[in-house]
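Quick note —
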Amino acid sequence: MIAYHESFTAAADEHFVGFGEKFTGFDKRGQRAVMWNYDAFGSESDRSYKNVPFYLSSRGYGVLVDSGMATEFDMCQSTHSCVQIVVAG
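Predicted structure written out below.
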């Protein structure tokens, strides 16, 4: 698979919010958000129709990924001090 990958260092006390309608905790640190519309089948998962590939940091900056492709945001889930973004295609 061909993909674009970017990673950022995250401070231990940094928190993140965003991504549109998600049925998970408000603070997205420690979560993985996939920006692709799915049938949600209720509010028991992170799937939704209202995905927004944008997040805000408690450090005062925001990141927007301007792409129509499936985008994955790993918000310090795989590595506790790193935000990773992968855009397919």
